[in-house]
Amino acid sequence: MSHRPFTRRxxxxxxxxxxxxxxxxxxxxxxxxEASGGGGEGGGTETVQVGTLPIANAAAMYLGMEQxxxxxxxxxxxxxxxxxxxxxxxxxxxxxxxxxxxxYISAGIAAAQGxxxxxxxxxxxxxxxxxxxxxxxxxxxDSDISSAADLAGKTISVNGLGGVAEVxxxxxxxxxxxxxxxxNLIEVPFPEVPAAVxxxxxxxxxxxxxFVTTVLDQGGKVAFAPQSTIAPEYPNGSYATSEQFVQQxxxxxxxxxxxxxxxxxxxxxxxxAIREIIPTYxxxxxxxxxxxxxxxxQSELQNDAIDQQMGFLETYDIVDEAPTADELVCG
Length: 331
What we know:
It comes from Modestobacter roseus. Pfam families: NMT1. Belongs to the bacterial solute-binding protein SsuA/TauA family. By secondary structure, the chain is α/β, with parallel strands linked by helices. The chain has helices spanning about 15-25, 30-35, 60-65, 70, 85-95, 105-110, 165-175, 195-200, 210-215, 225-230, 245-250, 250-270, 270-280, 285-290, 305-315, 325-330, and strands at about 45-50, 75-80, 100-105, 115-125, 135-140, 155-160, 185, 205-210, 220-225, 235-240, 295. The chain has two domains: about 15-125 and about 235-330, D-Maltodextrin-Binding Protein, domain 2, CATH 3.40.190.10; about 135-230, 3-Layer(aba) Sandwich (D-Maltodextrin-Binding Protein, domain 2). The strands form two sheets. Strands 2-1-3-10-4-11 form a six-stranded mixed β-sheet. Strands 7-6-8-5-9 form a five-stranded mixed β-sheet. β6 (about 155-160), α7 (about 165-175) and β7 (about 185) form a beta-alpha-beta unit. α6 (about 105-110) packs across α15 and α8 packs parallel to α9 (about 210-215). The longest helix is centred in the last third of the chain and has 20 residues, at about 250-270. The chain is globular and about 60 Å long.
């Protein structure tokens, strides 16, 4: 898939990141990684700063830390938990973090603005159907919404206008032949969706786990799964870094990629271990962690799907010109 010639120009809700990028370019001091000396075979352990989120999607990294996969590569991970992908991207370009857990959409928006970030590794994907997807539209149990066609004329919430949820919902509706302009979109943060559904303030709400399980526990239902409708196991999250870090630390990048790949493959094959580790770094209870829908952990970058997502950014006027997958993935 090819987009218009990429000139990194955009009009998005994260315009301030471009200013941060300009301020950070060329002025970052030595990171812990650069100062620690060699790692891997025969070298010391290097500390790597990672910005992350308190969600199940990030569990593979924590599991890899527990299993020693990063230690095997001569790396020690120091995670910092933040609340948004934008905060993580800002930290990447300012040099606070070496790597950060962000969605492909968020990374693409930032890159389109001239923020010098690139995707280093894959991380997670959505489920395969409404029965196992973990980021979905939920509704009350007596709702008449059971398919994309039922969303026309309804009031639907997304966690942020112009963000991942809106982009994916519009793309899925287009794919299902539903005019998305007939849907009334409003903003409701993911944690507030269960209460909004129960109170009848919205007809359906886009949310993720553990709030999907909360809605199911209160008698609600999954009404539509936009991302897995686009494609089963559709790529969602990644680990990004700054272009400056790539240039200055190619060996660390390679070792981080290797450790994350091993971690993601282990996570995919060991869901019980994922359920056990989630409560250790999130506020999700052991009970909910034992029952909630889990992300699909994905170790290989899916360039065709990333290209498609970058195309969505242009189609739905999130950015003027989006990067291709080849431009977004660290070279």
